[in-house]
Design a protein that fits this description.
Blueprint lengths: L1 H12 L4 H7 L25 H17 L1 H14 L5 E9 L5 E3 L1 H15 L6 H15 L1 E12 L5 E10 L7 E7 L2 E10 L6 E4 L2 E2 L11 E2 L2 E5 L17 H21 L3 E6 L4 H8 L17 E6 L5 H18 L15 H39 L9 E8 L8 H20 L5 H14 L10 H23 L16 H5 L1
Antiparallel strand pairs: 1-2, 1-13, 3-4, 3-10, 5-6, 6-7, 8-9, 11-12
């Protein structure tokens, strides 16, 4: 029916409208080389059109290269999500008899060694490459890391499992032409296609093997680790950190460029010479011989001649206010305080610290994304080692990965010490007045020590500390008697002996 309508309109319009209709409508049996650039209008997807999506990526990269403000915003996120504080710790845990996870020392050391070999591999170089990976993830909104597992070849030419060493690569998000999702669950990505269709390479996204009969059951398998940023649930592609500010950053570039060009005009002046009583012809005759006054020179004239140096008034203050307004809008809408960008002169220390709270929350959200990527990468590395037989995990043992990034709660040491001293003093008064129990006071102290980066042992409770303190007091008493020696002219003084209550009563 649709083909009939297109043909009818083609005949009625003399062929003028058919091209537009055929471009907008493509049936299943019509071949179109540009079909992958379009999607149906009835689709519920929230993705940009492919051409718009590619343009957004290209503009993000262009602005990151030439716009200092855009680069600074990206650099701040990268510095807080990677760098010198980046460290990964792997532990193998197993539920104990009390239900609490217990660390398996030997297995944890083996898992950490496997991870260290992966991270220090001359191809992977994870610690060196991590800032660039985070940078691209934030800039483009997508991160695709193809993974390969080292295998070995038998004398017969058959490729079999090797030692399970994993190496990862990188795929430019601009080369991803299609993202295939589960039609019943759009949040589940099944594969990505690299290169233009139909000749693109389809790579399976890393996911747990759900086939109970497979030897890799419940282990991560696949060809590429794929993560997305800044999207809604019904969106297959991720978008970059700057995508909503592309137009504003470009306008800011143009505005600054034009303002700088205006400086040449503002720095230019000219001499205005008023000659009273002379005709136009006399003034024109004197133009050729006129010389502007030199610096420090004297100019002699009568009351009929008046010299003035005139400079243009281009309202530079208005330009400065407009520039500050644009910067405030861009920086503030991304959640950054102005003081982080060398402006905000009206702010003081208290207001600057208060404005940093939303920024820290945004950075914590970005750190969660980075941690999830590294955790999945670590799980894949360990699973491949288990599949290759390099490592054995007993039933009930599982991997727990801790990714250390910059501590956003880290504060100045003097501020922490002063605050902790006030907390302890307040708890002492509260305990003396029976307002809190020893257990509650201990919990408050433990929470403050945790914020300071000090790990409190789980078995360090109030009763244990009291017993240790009594033992220490008894040891001090014994040392005191041992060091006292015998009294003058007598035997060494004996230590008091504790008599059980039953014998004392008898």
């Amino acid at each position: 029916m649709a083909n009939f309508l297109v043909t009818l309109i083609d005949r009625l319009s003399g062929g003028k409208l058919s091209a537009q209709f055929r471009e907008a409508y493509t049936s299943d049996n019509m071949e179109d080389a540009d079909a992958y650039l379009y999607r149906r209008l009835t689709s519920l997807q929230r993705d940009l059109m492919p051409m718009q999506f590619k343009r957004a990526q290209d503009l993000s990269f262009s602005l990151w290269q030439r716009n200092p403000l855009a680069r600074r915003m990206i650099d701040i996120v990268v510095q807080f999500c990677s760098g010198d504080d980046f460290r990964v710790e792997l532990n193998i845990l197993k539920s104990g008899t009390d239900g609490q996870p217990e660390k398996q020392e030997d297995a944890s050391a083996e898992a950490q060694e496997i991870w260290n070999q992966f991270a220090r591999d001359p191809v992977n170089r994870l610690e060196q490459e991590m800032p660039m990976l985070v940078q691209d993830f934030v800039l483009f909104g997508e991160l695709a890391l193809p993974v390969t597992v080292r295998s070995r070849t038998t004398p017969g030419g058959e490729e079999v499992a090797g030692d399970g060493l994993v190496r990862f690569g990188y795929i430019d998000p601009g080369n991803i032409s299609e993202v295939e999702v589960n039609p019943k669950n759009i949040r589940e990505v099944r594969s990505i296609t690299v290169g233009a269709t139909p000749n693109g390479i389809k790579l399976a996204v890393v996911s747990p093997d759900t086939n109970p009969t497979s030897p890799t059951y419940e282990r991560l398998t696949g060809e590429v680790i794929y993560y997305r940023l800044n999207r809604v649930a019904n969106q297959t592609r991720g978008t970059g950190f700057l995508v909503e500010h592309l137009d504003w950053l470009d306008l800011l570039d143009q505005f600054v460029f034009e303002a700088l060009r205006g400086f040449q005009a503002r720095n230019t002046f000219f001499w205005s010479v008023k000659m009273t009583g002379l005709s136009e012809a006399q003034i024109e005759a004197r133009k050729s011989s006129f010389q502007p006054p030199q610096t420090g020179a004297a100019r002699l004239h009568n009351e009929n001649v008046e010299y003035n140096a005139v400079a243009p008034d281009l309202k530079a203050q208005d330009i400065e206010r407009a520039l500050l307004s644009m910067e405030t809008f861009i920086i503030g809408s991304k959640g950054f305080p102005l003081t982080w960008f060398g402006t905000g002169e009206s702010s003081n220390r208290a207001s600057a610290e208060a404005m940093a709270v939303p920024t820290l929350k945004m950075l914590q959200s970005m750190q969660r994304h980075v941690r999830n990527i590294v955790k999945e990468l670590a799980q894949f590395v360990i699973d491949q080692a288990v599949i290759a037989g390099r490592m054995d995990l007993e039933k009930g043992e599982y991997l727990d990965t801790t990714v250390y990034l910059h501590d956003l709660n880290r504060r100045d040491a003097s501020v922490i010490a002063a605050g902790f001293q006030q907390v302890v003093a307040a708890l002492t008064v509260a305990r003396q007045n029976a307002w809190v129990s020893d257990e509650t006071a201990k919990q408050v102290v433990d929470s403050n020590l945790t914020l300071m980066g000090i790990e409190v042992p789980a078995d360090e409770d109030v009763e244990t500390l009291k017993e240790e303190r009594e033992e220490e007091k008894q040891e001090n008493i014994e040392k005191m008697y041992d060091q006292a020696g015998p009294p003058p002219g007598g035997e060494k003084q004996k230590k008091p002996v504790e008599v059980p209550e039953e014998e004392e009563a008898a």
